[in-house]
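Hey, sorry for the delay on this. The queue was backed up all week. Below are the sequences that define the complex (chains, strands and the ligand SMILES where applicable).
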Amino acid sequence: MTTTEGPPRGAGRVEGGCTLTFDDGPDSEWTPRVLAELDRCEARATFFVIGARVDCAPELAHAAVDRGHDVELHCDRHVRHTELTDRELEDDTRSGLLALERAGLPRPTRWRPPWGICSEASPRVAVEQGLELVGWTIDTHDWRGDASAEMLEAAGSGIEDGAIVLMHDALGPGARRQGVGETVGLIGPLCALARGQGLRVVSLSQEARARAAPRRLGAPG
Ligand SMILES: [Zn+2]
């Protein structure tokens, strides 16, 4: 882990950023707690949601958007792409997108497949639907139920410019924990760690804008 003795935050400098991502929601009990903690930490995040769960709780997905977070596509049914025929994958992707559309949410531009597993067809379906496939650089394994301090110790060293942290705001398939409290408890320390390195904690769309700006405009200094 590097400690920062970086350049001063001068005008025009685009700071680096890292992103917290939350899969498998929305969840009526846990998503509000994650949102409240993100508010408290003044952080923006990216949520990869399950279409069927958006159908059950569209107001939670809207709450995330209203607070400046991204709501992007995870799936409709939580199945590995490699276990689906090409047709089933196309159908699941369309169903998930339709659920977000029914809820009146912005059209997603990013897609994280269940377990991050792609089939040969996934990149093609992504292009057809105008979605960018997104993985992660840090896996907190929060589904296991480890304490937030343990997760911080294991994952914290990966916090760096451009880092994408995988977390969950709901109990997905295979979760070995009763609730998402330890994930909520990890948000503050991760934000502090990132900011200690001079990094902003931003959504992927904010991060993309920050990275596009200097290339488009020419970065001063
Ligand atoms: Zn998932």
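Strands lie at 17-23, 46-50, 70-75, 110-111, 132-133, 138-139, 164-168, 200-201.

I'll add it to the shared folder too.

S.
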